[in-house]
What we know:
The radius of gyration is 17 Å and the shape is globular. 44% of the residues are buried. It has helices spanning 40-62, 69-93, 140-146, 152-156, 194-197, 202-211, 214-227; strands at 2-8, 18-26, 29-38, 101-102, 104-109, 113-119, 123-127, 131-133, 177-182, 188-192, 234-240. Strand 5 (104-109) and strand 6 (113-119) form a beta hairpin. The chain is α+β, with helices and mostly antiparallel strands. The strands form two sheets. Strands 2, 3, 4, 5, 6 and 9 form a six-stranded antiparallel sheet that branches. Strands 1-11-10-7-8 form a five-stranded antiparallel sheet. It contains seven helices and eleven strands.
Amino acid sequence: MQLFSKTDVGKVRLTNQDCVDAFMLTDNVAFAIVCDGMGGANGGDIASTTAVRSISEYVKKSYSEKMNNEKTAQLLKNAISSANLDVFALAESDNSLQGMGTTVVAAVVTQSYAVICHVGDSRAYLINDAVIQLTTDHSIVQSLIESGELTLDEAKTHPEKNVITRALGVEENIFPDYCVVPLKPTDSVLLCSDGLTNYVDSADILSTFAENNMENVADILISAANSNGGGDNISVVIVSQNRG
């Protein structure tokens, strides 16, 4: 199993409010996380960094290979809930940080399954001979798509496309969604912030995975997002089975 991660400020933003992490929990189990912060000059950076640190430490301390998928999903939800309280408490203690928050998408990946938990609009994808979105955005635009008021094409240019309906750290309670996805030996899992998906389409993501060595894919995807405008921070984490 291989892990690759990279985050980039992009071409427009002055600071990078994304934060990522990826590491092996055991010889055959990986953990990956992407957070995209929001909330002023310092708030977004503090929210995402705090969340990544808190969730990563929680998972490291609590994960066991004896856990089944449901227990692993509960572990991720508990870790996100704990981080939510950490970020919320920071915001409550400092007026300059009030309202800060962050998206989160986190995954525990074994050789057979990926267990993914998320809040907000940072996404997880399954990459094989297609690009399959595994998470559903918690956003105003997604709600409009589901109600039939917007098409997918209209959503791409909607003025509120970046407005999310759930975020970590904004309220005392948080409600993550999760999914469990079976994996084949040639599958990869991609976690990313919307700085990638708003600037690189699925066809280009697929061709990048298909035509390049895996160790170069994250750099190429970020370069593509920057070439297409780079209007946001860009984060990519890849877990590759590397068993094909």
